[in-house]
Structure formats: C-alpha cells, structure tokens
Amino acid sequence: KFLNESCSICSEDFIEKSFVCELQCRHVYHFACIRLWLLKKSSCPFCRQAI
C-alpha cells in the first residue's frame, strides 16, 4: 500500500503498481509524471527533498 493513493502531480489514482515510482522520501508518483518533473527540478514535488 502506498503512502498516498494518487499521484500528487496529475491527481489521478494509482491503478497498476508497475507504473509508479517511489522516491527515497517514500512519496510515490506515476513514472511518467515524476520523470517529466525531474527533468526540470531535482527535488520531490511534495516534500522538496533533493533527489
């Protein structure tokens, strides 16, 4: 079970575990969403921990 039920970037629910990415801070996002985020910024969108 994930700490959050939906992606904080796109606000859509997680449907399949294989399409998610958990960062070191334990926040979980859709792989595609966090990939695009990390191309622009180098921190978690939720807690701002450096990645």
Automatic annotation (TrEMBL):
Span of the signal peptide: none
Reaction equation(s) it catalyzes: S-ubiquitinyl-[E2 ubiquitin-conjugating enzyme]-L-cysteine + [acceptor protein]-L-lysine = [E2 ubiquitin-conjugating enzyme]-L-cysteine + N(6)-ubiquitinyl-[acceptor protein]-L-lysine
Assigned EC number: 2.3.2.27
Keywords: Metal-binding, Transferase, Ubl conjugation pathway, Zinc, Zinc-finger
Keyword Metal-binding recorded: yes
GO molecular function: ubiquitin protein ligase activity; zinc ion binding
Coiled coil, from the record: none
Spans traversing the lipid bilayer: none
Pfam families linked: zf-RING_2
InterPro entries: MBR1/2-like (IPR045191), Znf_RING (IPR001841), Znf_RING/FYVE/PHD (IPR013083)
Residue ranges constituting the RING-type domain according to the UniProt record: 7-48
Presence of keyword Zinc-finger: yes
PANTHER family named among the record's database cross-references: E3 UBIQUITIN-PROTEIN LIGASE ARK2C (PTHR22937:SF65), E3 UBIQUITIN-PROTEIN LIGASE RNF165 (PTHR22937)
Protein name (record): RING-type E3 ubiquitin transferase
Gene: 20197350
